[in-house]
Structure formats: structure tokens, C-alpha cells
Amino acid sequence: MKLPYAEPFKIKMVETIKRTLKEDRIKWIKDAQYNLFKLDSDKVFIDLLTDSGTGAMSDKQWAEVMTGDESYAGSRSFTYLKDTVKELLGFEYFLPTHQGRAAENVLFSAVVKEGDVVPGNSHFDTTKGHIEFRKAKAIDCTIDEAFDTTVQHPFKGNVDLVKLENVFKSNSKVNIPFTLITITNNTAGGQPVSLKNIKDVSNLCKKYDIPVFFDIARFAENAYFIKTREEEYKDFSIREIVKEMFLYCETATMSSKKDGLVNIGGFIGLKSEDLFRKASTFNIMFEGFITYGGMSGRDMAALAQGLQEATEFEYLKSRISQVAYLGNKLLEYGVPVQEPFGGHAIFVDAKRFLPNVPQSEYSAQTLGVELYIEGGVRGVEIGTLLADRDPETRENRYPNLELLRLAIPRRTYTQNHMDYIAASLKNVYDRREEITSGLEIEWESPIMRHFTVELKKK
Ligand code: F0G
After folding, report:
1. Enclosing domain of residue 257
2. Chosen domain end from 247, 276, 310
3. 322/303 same-domain check
4. Which CATH number does the domain housing residue 224 bear?
């Protein structure tokens, strides 16, 4: 008999989670104004709100926590992290920040100005927020295949070169500070970008003399997809692929809460000394001195260890296989999901799941509420609420994809949890015809509304 696959770790510490009653959940979600961010975590059984900072650290990472150096300047843990980033990603210069959006804030303060445009492949919401906050524009140049959840394409995160070149042709070079490649492309479904596409973007950007920046929150998961889906790289190790990917970027922002395998942290990796100097000033103003940038020494040390673990093939295989296990279960039940599956989450297609609920009634959010009521499982809307309003017209922006994301925390849940999640969603799917109306907004903030929005049933 062929031996089945099993996780390359065993569990040393457990945390109790509690099942709750459906009638309580109906009340709790109403009290939370149908906003899943407003639920207390003890009212959630399986929490798939995000894979950001919610994973389990290893024994070796916890050992680093005990020996971290808390010196304000020149901490040993800082040097350890800086050296690790240089060794794995090739960046000569390095600035720690407290999380990914802080890295964006620091870096964009140095390079983005009013009137600029920043093309890329579906900028993450905080990234777009930091661009728009500076009265600049984020332009999505993701390939069209990404916007149809039924189309099979191995690299749905790719940048469309024609769309990108159009941005270059229709804007002055002085207004394009950089092109941003987000790996993996979270918004389109945790979809990877191929090395070929990275190289093509880099060549096009060279032609127009525009730097390439990366948003590398899930760079290791991206490397796994390159190894398993891009023929040319199948015999490369993950670390060799990572090295190759980073040859094509000048500067990167990282949310360490994802592929850093830690609960908090971020950084900026840079190759230009000049930009490093400029960004350092903002780092000191917003984050802290340049050898800690909002992180404790122990957190930096645990991150250095986490980056080593995240770039191991066996770890990535278990991680991405677990996400695919959930995806395949849902397909078995007929639930429409983004295919092929991405790296960190399964994205349920709310337009196909709830055809009776119009997008203007926030169908993905409605589905998220129904899933919570059904099984105490919390996902997150990646749809119209997240897309926010157009900063000029203030009209709702209706994205092509209206998705409920089920993000899987790293090394946290078991296969039984995946079965439970799939069964909960199947039960909602079985009664989908009865769900004929969605939600409406009672209050929203002017930017990043999805975190605090207050909703009621339509
Ligand atoms: N870039 C990407 C691609 C992200 O997914 C995130 C965060 C950030 C930047 C910002 O990083 O949270 O450390 O400030 N994504 C989380 C998520 C919140 O749930 O997908 P951060």
C-alpha cells in the first residue's frame, strides 16, 4: 500500500476552542451588526478570518523568543534577522517594521506622491489605501483569467503585460514610481505569479525605466507553486526559486505575519542605499529606530527562524495540501470556488453560490454571515465592502469577483477541522435557494470601511 501523506510535525501545545449554539450565533452576529470583524473570538469555533498572524510557531521559534536581544540599538536579534533576509532574499539593506502596512507606509512616504499611478496585480487593500491616501492611484493589471473562477490557469496572479504597457504609455514616467507585483496575489484568490511573468514584467519595466517592487507577504507559497507548476523549475529547491524571484525586484515590503510564520512583524528589503537612507528617516518617525522598527528583539529572532522554516519544501507541501484538501471537499459538494486553489485560502464564489442575492446587497458578506450562523466558522468578505467606494465619485466599486475567503492559519487546524468547515458550507449550499436577500449599510467609515462597517438585514 502506498503510504498516505502526513504532516511533517507533531503538536506540542494545544488551545481549547468551543462549539456554540446556533440560536446564540444568530443573536451574536446581529449584535455585531453583521460584521464578522466585530465578533469576539470566543464566539467563533473555527476562525478563518485571516491567515495573518494566526499561525502556530515552532519549538525552535519559541526557543528564539527566550534568547532574543532587547537592546534598543544594534540588537543581536536584528543582525540575525537582517542576515537571514540577505541570505534568503538577497537584500543588502533592511528595515524592520511592526507589520506589512507599516512597511508600506514607510516606503510609500519616500516614493509615492500626489498624482502618481502605481500599476500592479490587484494591490492588497492596505496597499491600495496607502497609495490612495497619498492622492495617487493603484491600477490593477491582473490577467483577465483571474476574474473568472471557473477558468483553469496555473498562474492566475500574473500581470497582464499589455495592460501594464498601456499604463506606461498613457502616463508620464515621473508619475510612475514603481510597478508592484504582489506574490501571491491575495485579492484574486491567493493566486501565484510565474517566474516567467516576473521576468517579463521586469524586462518591460526596464524598457520604460520603472523599478519593480514586490509585496512578498506569501513569497514562499508562490515559490512552491513555481516549483510544482512551472516545468522549468521543477528540479530547483524552494530557496533557489526564491533567490531567482528576488533577482527581479528592487525593493520589497513584507507582512511577516504570513510567510514569516510569526504573529506580528514586517519589513522592507532594499537594494538601493539611497532609498534605504530616505526610508530610514520615515522608519524612525513612524516605527522606531532602524534596528527594531516596532518589533521586539525576541520577535525579530523568531521571525528569522520562521523565514527558514517557511522556505522548506516539506512545510510548504503540508500547508498547501491542507488548503487543497478543503478545496477538493467543497468541489465534491458542488460548492463554487476559485480554481485552481490558491496558497493560503479557499475563495468561495458568492455570485455563483447565491445567485438570488444581488452584488449590491453584499452577497459575499451575506454568505459569510450564513456560514457563521451554520457552523460558527468565520471567513472574510473579499468583495464589494472591501473594494470600498471610488475616492472621487463615492460610488460603490463593484469588483469582478465577489468572494468569501476561507483563510487557513498555518500549522493550526487539522483535517477534521477541514471536514467540519466543508460540511458547514455544504449545509448552507443546500438551502441557498431560500436565501433571497442580503444586507445594507447603516454606517461606514470613509476609507477601509469593511473593518468597522455596520450592516442590517435587507
Ligand atoms: N500585502 C498583502 C498581500 C496582504 O495580504 C496583507 C495583509 C498586507 C500586505 C498587509 O500586511 O496585515 O501585516 O499590515 N493581509 C491580511 C489578510 C490582513 O488577511 O490577508 P499587514
Report:
1. 59-310
2. 310
3. no
4. 3.40.640.10
Please list the pLDDT of the chain residue by residue as tens digits (458 residues): 999 889 999 999 999 999 999 999 999 999 999 999 999 999 999 999 999 999 999 999 999 999 999 999 999 999 999 999 999 999 999 999 999 999 999 999 999 999 999 999 999 989 999 999 999 999 999 999 999 989 999 999 999 999 999 999 999 999 999 999 999 999 888 999 999 999 999 999 999 999 999 999 999 999 999 999 999 999 999 999 999 999 999 999 999 999 999 999 999 999 999 999 999 999 999 999 999 999 999 999 999 999 999 999 999 999 999 999 999 999 999 999 999 999 999 999 999 999 999 999 999 999 999 999 999 999 999 999 998 898 889 999 999 889 999 999 999 999 999 999 999 999 999 999 999 999 999 999 988 899 999 999 99
Query: Is 31 tagged catalytic?
Result: no
CA distance 4 to 293: 44
User: Is 164 in the same domain as 28?
Assistant: no
DSSP assigned state of 350: H
Q: Do 120 and 248 fall into the same domain? A: yes
As a whole number of angstroms, the distance between CA 216 and CA 120 comes to: 13
| Phi–psi pair at 341, nearest 5 degrees | -70, 145
In the structure grid, which three cell numbers stand for residue 261, read together? 510564520
Q: Is 138 helix (H, G, I), strand (E, B) or coil?
A: strand
Domain boundary among 293, 310, 327: 310
Protein residue with its CA nearest to atom 11 in ligand 1? 100
Record the pTM.
Answer: 0.96
Ligand 1 pocket member 134 (CB < 6 A): no
Q: Please, which residues have CB within 8 angstroms of residue 94's CB and are 6 or more apart in sequence?
A: 81, 82, 85, 86, 267, 268, 269, 270
**Could you tell me if the CB of 259 is within 6 A of ligand 1?**
no
Nearest residue to 312 (alpha-carbon basis) of 4, 9, 5, 3? 9
Domain check: are 205 and 67 in the same one?
yes
Name which residue sits closest to atom 13 of ligand 1, judged by CA: 100
Given 47, 51, 160, 215, the catalytic residue: 215
Q: Which atom of ligand 1 is nearest to the CA of 380?
A: 19
Nearest-atom number in ligand 1 for the CA of 344 is 20
| Pair (301, 182) in one structural domain | yes
72 labelled catalytic: yes
